[in-house]
Every structure is written in structure tokens, then in C-alpha cells.
Amino acid sequence: MKKYLAIAVAAAALMTAAPAAAQSWQSINQRQDRLDARIDTGVRNGSLTRNEAVRLRAEFNDLVRLEARYRASNGLSFNERADLDRRFDNLSQRIRYERNDRDDRGWQSINQRQRHIDSRIDFGVQRGYISRREATRLRAEFNDIARLEVQYRRNGLSNPERRELDRRFDRLSATVEAELRDRNNRRG
Fold first, then answer.
1. Residue 118 — very low, low, confident or very high, per pLDDT cuts 50/70/90?
2. CA-to-CA distance for 172 and 146, rounded, in angstroms?
3. Burial of 151 by CB count in 10 Å (0-12 exposed, 13-18 middle, 19+ buried)?
4. What DSSP state is assigned to residue 108?
5. What residue spans define the domains of the chain?
6. How confident is the model at residue 137 (pLDDT cuts 50, 70, 90)?
7. Residue 148 CB partners (closer than 8 Å, separation 6+)
8. Residue 129 in contact with residue 184, Cβ under 8 Å?
9. pLDDT of 2 above 80
10. DSSP assignment letter at 154
11. Contact by Cβ (8 Å): 44, 99
12. Which residues pair with 49 in a beta bridge?
């Protein structure tokens, strides 16, 4: 009797879990859209380098071509669908890994740098070390760098582009600090 009760409980648990699993299943087109969007997001936010994005896109396009070949041969069989699911799972894991591999350790995002530079400029203006005109000029220079970064990120941020942005940010930061020291020395 206990044996039948255990089987009945197990069957009920499986029937309850089946609808939840079915809801999380995505069609191949939905998976393609999600993976494509994740690569785009990684390029835009800088978590994927240009080389990583190119490599992941190539793999993604290979899967799209494979799916087209499978479909051309009288639709997708169960085995072909399982093969595509496995391959999409592997690509999804690689995207996750590449976006989190921290190969840009030490790199500050534009938002972090903007907050730092803005706070230094605000400090200088409040203390009278930087004039409003100088603050406007420094912020305009920052905005030029921000526009350049947006342009670079469209296709993924390459290492030479990252170095160029770092060089410009460092120069702007040094200018802000020089303005602070210069005015501070004049006042004291």
C-alpha cells in the first residue's frame, strides 16, 4: 500500500511540475531573439569586447544556418530540435561567461568616470577653485568623450578604442585636478 501511495505522490509531483516546465520552454525563434539581444546588450554596456561579440555572432549565425538546413529537409525532427536546443544552451552559457569574465577589470564605465569628474568639478565650483565658465568647458570636453564612447560601443569596444578613451579621460581628469590645485594655490 505504501508503495502505491509513493508512486501516486511521485506522479502527482511530476504532473504539477510539467506545466511549469512547459511554460519556460521557448521556441527556437524566441531563443534566437533572446541570444541576439543579449549579445547586443553586452556590446552596448561594454561587458563584451568587440572580438568576443564577433566570435559569438559568428557562432550564432552558424546555428541559424544549421536550423535553416534542418528545416529545409522536411521540417525539424525531434532529434534535430534536441540538437539545436543543446547548441543554443551552449551558446547561451558562452555568452554568460564572456559577459561576466571581467576581462575589462580595472576599466571604469563612462558613468563611473562621469560621476567622479562631475563631483570634482562641483567641488571646485562650490569652493571657488573653478569658475562656472571653466566648469562648462570641462563638462563639454567630457561630453565629447562620452559621444566618442557611444560611437565606439556600437560595434563593440576594442582594446585600442578603450585605451584612447582612457587616455582622454585621464587627460580631462588631470586638467580638472590642475584647475583645483591652481586655484587652491592662488587662494592660499
1. confident
2. 12
3. exposed
4. P
5. 26-100, 110-187
6. very high
7. 164, 165, 168
8. yes
9. no
10. T
11. no
12. 157
